[in-house]
Specification:
Elements lengths: L2 H25 L14 E5 L4 H12 L3 E6 L18 E5 L12 E4 L6 H6 L1 H22 L2 E7 L26 H21 L3 E6 L14 H10 L4 E2 L5 H12 L7 E3 L7 H12 L5 E2 L16 H7 L7 H20 L21
Parallel strand pairs: 1-2, 1-4, 2-3, 4-5, 5-6, 6-8, 7-9
The structure holds uridine-5'-diphosphate-glucuronic acid.
The site of uridine-5'-diphosphate-glucuronic acid (UGA) has 11 residues, from helix 4 and helix 5.
Length: about 375
């Protein structure tokens, strides 16, 4: 045998091994559609490693777009998007939107902000900066590159509403100096900025007012009703007494982004439950022996909130479709796995502080 043949024979199994490894590497990603250059968009998702952002990342990646996730990992987690790391259409940037960002994109989903009361109240000034300076920076970016920006606004802009249900024309009832103001007013001024950039600079904007959402990848220490109830029921603790799912929400956001409605649109589930009904439902789904406990309410806590979604239905043909119990069961499964993880001491999910301050208690 010639020397070349010998080398070839020796190298052949190695080549085969490399091919196998390459295949296993490319096959580890969820399936992604192929989009032509014309249809493929470069999409920035701020807060893309968070609870809602990571579900949106999944959808847009699977639809075949190029997705850049920007997150400062205050409440977002790398784990939520780790299944895309290394994919040629995916990029993860550890960046705080309070600092300017210069990249080239076609669409911006601006979701970056802590969203649950314990998280956004932990550092109210940081929450204000994120929603004001952060939104200004993203609008500046949108203006520079001619991108369309969708702001993830919130039902909190309605405050503790005096009308029921709330449609998009309601101006809200917000205490500007209360404990929730950093988030409520932050989002209100973020909306104001969107329309100022639209009118003055011609930036294309979309504003989704999102109502309470729950589901997998929601933080266990989120502090909102569903996560609290499930956690307490699973751990046999007392339940300290409407919602919809990330898949429904993500479809609503994408539909709004690609529609021509620039005025605010409510996205939420109009099916209303009392907190007590909800506690009882979760208790029975978890098959928990927890008892339900009544505590004094928190300051400025909205008494009742229900979205009027006629606008989304009429203009986007959108409404939530996932049944409540199905969503709850999925979330319960996700939290059970997270608790197991914790018990095994492998990973303890906790919101990370943007900046630790001496002597300031952590909220969890
Ligand atoms: O102060 C003012 O008088 C001006 O403020 C803004 O203009 P400017 O501050 O130049 O900033 P924008 O281009 O609107 O961008 C806002 C911010 O976004 C940030 N940015 C901009 C572009 C970009 O690609 N990325 C990015 O993060 C910058 O930090 C910038 O401060 C307004 O657009 C002007 O109309 C106004 O006259």
């Amino acid at each position: 045998m010639k020397i070349e043949q010998k080398i070839d024979a020796a190298v052949a199994p190695l080549r085969e091994k490399i091919r196998e490894l390459e295949l296993s590497f490319t096959q580890k990603y969820p399936p992604v559609k192929f989009l032509s250059e014309k249809d493929r968009k470069r999409i920035l998702i701020t807060g893309g490693a968070g609870f809602v952002g990571s579900h949106l990342t999944d959808k847009l990646m699977m639809d075949g777009h190029e997705v850049t996730v920007v997150d400062n990992f205050f409440t977002g987690r790398k784990r939520n998007v780790e299944h895309w790391i290394g994919h040629e259409n995916f990029e993860l940037i550890n960046h705080d939107v309070v600092e300017p960002l210069y990249i080239e994109v076609d669409q911006i989903y601006h979701l970056a902000s802590p969203a649950s009361p314990p998280n956004y109240m932990y550092n109210p000034i940081k929450t204000l900066k994120t929603n004001t300076i952060g939104t200004l920076n993203m609008l500046g970016l949108a203006k520079r590159v001619g991108a369309r920006l969708l702001l993830a606004s919130t039902s909190e802009v309605y405050g503790d509403p005096e009308v029921h249900p709330q449609n998009e024309d309601y101006w809200g009832h917000v205490n500007p100096i209360g404990p929730r103001a950093c988030y409520d007013e932050g989002k209100r001024v973020a909306e104001t900025m969107c329309y100022a950039y639209m009118k003055q600079e011609g930036v294309e904007v979309r504003v989704a007012r999102i109502f309470n959402t729950f589901g997998s990848r929601m933080h266990m220490n989120d502090g909102r009703v569903v996560s609290n109830f499930i956690l307490q029921a699973l751990q046999g603790e007392p339940l300290t007494v409407f919602l919809f799912l990330p898949s429904d929400l993500v479809n609503g956001l994408v539909s709004l982004m690609n529609n021509n409605i620039s005025s605010p649109v409510n996205l939420g589930n109009p099916e209303e439950h009392t907190i007590l009904e909800f506690a009882q439902l979760i208790k029975s789904l978890v098959v928990s022996r927890s008892h339900i406990q009544f505590l004094p309410e928190a300051q400025d806590d909205p008494q009742r909130r229900r979205p009027d979604i006629r606008k989304a239905k009429m203009l986007l043909g959108w409404e939530p479709v996932v049944p409540l119990e199905e969503g709850l069961n999925k979330t319960i499964q996700y939290f059970s796995r997270e608790l197991e993880h914790q018990a095994n001491n492998q990973y303890v999910p906790k919101p990370k502080a943007a900046r630790m301050k001496k002597g300031r208690p952590r909220h969890n």
